[in-house]
Structures are given as C-alpha cells and as structure tokens.
Amino acid sequence: MKISKNRYLQGFLVVVLLLALVRVIFPSVAEPRLTARSDGKDSTAIDSLRGDLMASAGAQDELSVTPDTASDGSFSIFFDKNGKEVKHRIFSVPHFGNTFPDQQDVQIVAASRHGVAPVQNREEAEHSKGKLVYVGSNPFFYVDKLNNSIPYLVPRASVLLQDIGRAYFDSLQIKGIPLHKIIVTSILRTKDDVSKLRTRNGNATENSCHLYGTTFDVCYNRYKQIQTEKQPRRQVQDDTLKWVFSEVLRDFREKNRCYIKYEVKQGCFHITVR
Prior knowledge:
Number of strands: 8
Structural class: alpha+beta
Distance between the termini: 86 Å
Oligomer: single chain
CATH topology of the domain at 96-273: Muramoyl-pentapeptide Carboxypeptidase, domain 2
Strand content: 5-15%
C-alpha cells in the first residue's frame, strides 16, 4: 500500500514539532555532554578527559602549553617587547689564526673521504659532473672570476657554502649592517690547474684539497655590496664585514660542519666540508 505524498509530509511535520516541544520543555537534552554544569563544576566526563590528558602529558595540576612569543610579551632576536629594533654587537674572534688553524694534513683527510677522485684536466672533469654540482652566483654569495679552478663542488660542500652565505645574511641583519655577499675565489681544481698554480704560488700544495670538490676559498678583504639605484646602501668597512663573517665561520666550525684555515697571504678562508 502506497503512502501519499501529503500524508508523508504531514507525518514529518508532526515529528519536527514533537522534537521542538521536547527541547523547549527539557533544554538540557540539546547541551553538549563535555561542558561545564550550571553550578560551575566540571562534569564527570570532563574530569575523566582532563585526567587522561594530564597523565599522558606528565602534568600534575593543570595542562601547560608553551606560550607563543607573540602572545606572551616576549621578543625575538630582531625586536624587543616594545617593538624596538635590537642592536647586536660585533665581537669578531679573538685571533684569526688560532680560531681557524686547520692545516692541510687535517683538511686532506676530510677531502679524501667526502670528495671525488682528482681529475687531470677540465675535459676529464666534464665526465665527473654526475658526482658534482654547479656552483654559481646566487642571492647568498658571489662567485668571482675563476682563473685556476672551475665552479663545481660535491653536493655536501655546495650545501655548506649555501648555508654559510645564508647565515652571514642573517648575522648582518640582526647587527643592523647593510647586506653584502661573500665572494668565492676558488673552487674545484684539476691536476693541471694545481701544476700551473704551483709555479706562481709557493703555498700551493700538489695534493690540494681543491682537487676533490670538497673545498672552496672565500676572501675576507672583499665583499659584494647589495644595492639598487632606488635603494643605495651605506658604505661599510671591509674589516667590519670580516669580523661578522669570522663569527659565522667560527659557529660552523664549532658545529663540526667544516675545517677552516685562515690564509694570510691569499687573503681568504680556506674551507673544507666535514
């Protein structure tokens, strides 16, 4: 027996009216079960839930949540609680030679472990590109004109160089110094490059760390200033930039990311990834 459409609608309306009447007479049936009672005390369900949460969090009295720095009034490394920019001092390092003492005998061990096999010439280096990555100027560092090397590193060393450039930017910013790029002056060398260099540079070693693609030189007496015609930057002394850079490199060395030698005659930091 089929039920007519009108009778179906009438029955539906009756059910709705009955439910509405029950809610008016007994409003508590519509309240969520996990709410506080009218007397201000937590319900048994809430107490049970809170107890489970406290037990899982190892809390004793109340659940604690680490407050957000923006809501608890604390300040970041850039601004204090009043929104005023914080000026960080420049400390440099006590002594460049003592802070960055890693000689050839130390660096060559890491270069041999993490690097590629030395290549004879640049044509042979082309066949090693599967193990090397191209290193070019980018927002965080500038690659100088390379006369005795080619712009390739093993991925591990490339990441290190990128991280150093980024950390240098951060350090300049929190110290209120206009942004400058570090300048990379030497990267991967072939055996032919090393032989030619040794005729002009007495400090160049035959078994150079640069042969392995793990090592790069960054000069400390020149920096690439970042500026535009619309937004020129104020001049900063190279010594100031060097002091900040030395702080950054010291942190990376202390974190065992690299070995560093302070080269006096070449005017650079000689860096090998670890």
